[in-house]
Amino acid sequence: MPETKTEEPAETESSLLSSRLLNRENGLKITLISLHGLIRANEPELGCDADTGGQVIYVLELARELASQPQVREVELLTRQIIDPKVSDDYAQLEEEISENAKLIRIPFGPRRYLKKEALWPYVDHFVDQTLVHFRRTGIPDIIHGHYADAGLAGAQLSRLLHVPYIFTGHSLGRVKRQRLSLNKDNLDALDRRYKFSLRTEAEEIALETASMVVTSTTQEVQQQYELYDHYVPSRMEVIPPGVDLSRFSPPTADWPRPAIADSLNQFLRDPNKPMILTMARPDERKNLTKLVDVYGQSEQLQKLANLVLIMGSRDDMMDLPKAQRRVLDSVLHRIDKHDLYGRVAYPKSHSPSDVPELYRYAAQNKGVFINPALTEPFGLTLLEAGATGLPIVATNDGGPRDIIANCNNGLLIDPLDDEMIEKALLRTLTEPDQWQAWSKAGIEGTRKHYSWSNHAHRYLRDLDDILQHSSVPALVSAPRARRLPEFDRLIVTDLDNTLSGDDEALAEFATMLEQNEHIGFAIATGRRLDSAMELIEQLGLPRPDVIDTDAGTQLHYGKKLTPDRSWRKQIGYAWKPDEIRKVLDEIPGLSARMTRINRSSK
Q1: How many CB atoms are closer than 10 A to CB 195?
Q2: How far apart are CA 517 and CA 239, in angstroms?
Q3: Are residues 214 and 273 in the same domain?
Q4: What distances in angstroms separate CA 109 from CA 113, 114, 122, 186, 467, one per listed residue?
């Protein structure tokens, strides 16, 4: 009889994983990158703008959990240093501890002031340059993981330059967002100008092309969102749902005290003891908050049964908010006035991170419901938080909510554009006490079973082990010991023609010297075009340069893969107007088009 193969218990698999990774010298160093948003380790300011949402919590919790694993030596989360009197001084600190073995590093790049994510694109290459300096000082990581499109582009460039394996998490994707926001919109050019969709999707394509693994939250995200991209490779996609901090998000106990945030809500409400329809989202067009107010405002039954509580970030003065957020808030307030909802809707100006779990518990205690009516939802961390506290959920039938409700069975899915479906789902949750109780219990149990950060970290490190150990990943990852620029302490730069050629014996001695001295870099500077220079290098059997400067100084490329220096191109391209120069030169008698091209190249 053939042997029966039994599956190893999770503890054994985990110990084997730890053993393999611990064989790497001193454990792993993991670099996470998240460039936009106001990120700090303590009391993160969620919802203070359109860029500071669930991704902030995701990367902080991921850093903490990975750093707690025995096979991980260090986790660093790279973000942007911000020096701006309009925001807290916390964001100017160059370094901040997240937890033991995890720290937040703020890299100075671009203007000092805070910039929304759409304004960061011109400075991403500057971040790459500054991060190379950081790595030279602190050591090159074993893995780089970029979060969102801007960090996706930066991480991909760093990965190519350093020959370090790369992981990408898109969080939300440009092509998907453009599709959803384009519904019923005539002026698509205005959308593209506001959200920089062409730059964003190009960055996502580069990240997908480079990544050895793409971490996604749901199967739907893989099949219906990433497949819209040219560099979508199904075998590199890994569905690893994020976790929820179960130490913070727990059900209310019998002796649970009335939360402080209740006072902020009660000043809005005529009958604060009614159940609560709670939503928590930054004022962003995609979050579909105006639709929720309309549904509530048009339903006498909902108004009779429950209050509507809108937690829309924090604000001191609406006029100081970015225009896009102000438009959403203006629209929400207009609808509250239109439907005469005063006394039935609460929309406090601010809340602290410590208020968030209290809000869920307060709503659960009064037999309320949490709703996420977003047009598109890559995951929906708030749904996990609500479920973990025992609050049933109603959520958009997209992305993460599908998987969460399938796993936890703690609520209903709705079409975010269907007023009647939204109303019916809320009414059912509020009027069927036995069903409410069943959903509440299922959410508490399901989140603990399927969505703990320890499960996420275990899956993450298991897949990372596959990347580091096996040759089936892209050649970048499985290459032999790489020569990397930040590790050089000197650089030999030479011309190509009649400099390296002519003495075969001396050239062989020179090549041997380079091979034996990993700290010495080798560069070629030539007026030739890149293709011409590489052809001559191959013909002569010359050592392949670590850096090559071609086209009379206008092109810089690095390493075996000839990774282009995007930052250098931008620097020398400043104020360069080739079309105007060509127009002037075309008027000069006897100057041919070929001469014009040569002249342009020599510039």
Answers
A1: 18
A2: 42
A3: no
A4: 10, 11, 10, 37, 31
Backbone angles phi, psi at 480, to 5 degrees: -65, 180
DSSP state of 253: P
User: 489 or 68: whose pLDDT is higher?
Assistant: 68
CATH number at residue 422: 3.40.50.2000
Q: Tell me the longest C-alpha to C-alpha distance in the chain.
A: 93
Give the β-pairing of 276-280 and 307-311. parallel
Determine contact, residues 296/392, Cβ cutoff 8 Å. Answer: no
Tokens for 150, please give them.
């801007």
CA distance 508 to 510: 5
CB-based burial label for 527 (10 Å; 0-12, 13-18, 19+) = middle
CA atoms 545, 551, 555, 561: torsion sign: negative
pLDDT digits (tens, 9 = 90+) for 391-400: 999 999 987 8
In a domain, 281, yes or no: yes
pTM for the model: 0.72
Handedness of CA 312, 87, 79, 90 (dihedral sign): negative
CA 426/CA 306 separation, integer angstroms:
10
Mark whether 494 and 435 lie in a shared domain. Answer: no
Sign of CA dihedral 109, 111, 113, 119: negative
Q: Which is nearest to 44 in space by CA: 61, 68, 22?
A: 61
Instruction: Answer yes or no: do 300 and 366 share one domain.
Output: yes
Q: What's the pLDDT at 597?
A: 44
Same domain assignment for residues 503 and 420? no
pLDDT, one tens digit per residue, over 187-197 is 788 888 888 89
Residue 474 lies in a domain: no
**Which tokens belong to 221?**
């995200």
Q: Which H or E run includes 192? A: helix 188-195
Is there a contact between 129 and 18 (Cβ–Cβ < 8 Å)?
no
Closest of 79, 97, 101 to residue 155, by C-alpha: 79
CB atoms within 10 A of CB 220: 18
Token pair of 201, please?
Answer: 């999707």
As a whole number of angstroms, the distance between CA 599 and CA 525 comes to 19
Q: Does residue 193 lie within any of the structural domains?
A: yes
CA angle at residue 386 from 383 to 389, to 5 degrees? Answer: 145
Name the strand (E) or helix (H) holding 279. Answer: strand 276-280
Lookup result for tokens 């100017």:
92
